[in-house]
Amino acid sequence: MAIRPSLLQRGDTIGLVTLGSPLDANIINTRVQFLRNMGFDIVFGRYVYSSDGIVAASAEQRADDLMNMFRDPSVKMILATRGGTGVQTILPYLDFEVIRQNPKIISGYSDITVLLNSLYQSSNLITFHSLMLIDFRPETPAYNFNQFFEATSTLNSPRLIQNPSNIALNGLVPGNVTGPIVGGNMTSLVNALGTPYEINTKGKILFLEETHSPTNMIFRYLTQLLMSGKFQDCIGIILGECTNCLVSYDTTYEDLINTLLVPLGKPLLINLTSGHGFYKAAIPIGANVNLNSTDNTLTVIESAVS
């Protein structure tokens, strides 16, 4: 059974880290004030405001920031400011045993995906494909906050992950399977293939979402995951949205799903609002979930926090 971090409560301390690309200081400051207004204390990693070209700081420096947050007993949750590019470069500098011994909530999506899955695989820690600092603002829909806090601040179980009422979850291949859920952003997962940190989907339910990739690129990604055995190894598939993904060669995202994934015969649920979409479900990476693509439901079997 995976390690469940302690739940988050108002008044707790959140550790802020920039693990990929830099983020404008004004954006950081306004989002931090939003969190403080919600009742949280904030501590800053040394390189939160840094900028070094494509990334905020060197891989070693960004990894040190993350490790210091895990070591700090006052920090209850670690929150990424953003994703961007370069998160996977910190992985060789992490001490996964220290992380295992100091489990904490860690949340993010986009390029943070590779970190979330690596922490589950190497530290057996449940992580959260959910909000980042950039999402803590008045314009964020209530659905996103409700999902985030229900996953990280309550012991409610089982927890049914539902889309907003006007957006349907659709089962394309009927079935009913239960197992740990892994995955997240497609680009990040494909980039990690062939490295020590590539995703393990054996006996898992694989969740994928993507943004700003034309469908000819999505074709490449899905094909690479197929040829790597990731779809063959998993027991079920959940697809989120492909937000702002342009159609190439008159072939849509849905066409690719029907051509490449439906023939696999695995339980397949599509259209989960998540990741880069306007609405963001909170997906606990490493937690046991039930995927019922006959009834079009996704249920977290037990609380992902303790």
UniProtKB/TrEMBL annotation:
Q: Which family does it belong to?
A: Belongs to the peptidase S66 family.
**Active-site residues, Swiss-Prot/TrEMBL:** 110, 209, 276
Please state every residue range assigned to the domain named LD-carboxypeptidase N-terminal: 14-129
Alphabetized UniProt keyword annotations: Carboxypeptidase, Hydrolase, Protease, Serine protease
Q: Which Pfam families match?
A: Peptidase_S66 (PF02016), Peptidase_S66C (PF17676)
Where is the signal peptide, in residue numbers? none
What is the recorded name of this protein? LD-carboxypeptidase
What's a BP term from Gene Ontology annotated to this protein?
Answer: proteolysis
Please list the GO terms describing molecular function: carboxypeptidase activity; serine-type peptidase activity
The protein's superkingdom reads Bacteria
Ranges for domain LD-carboxypeptidase C-terminal: 178-291
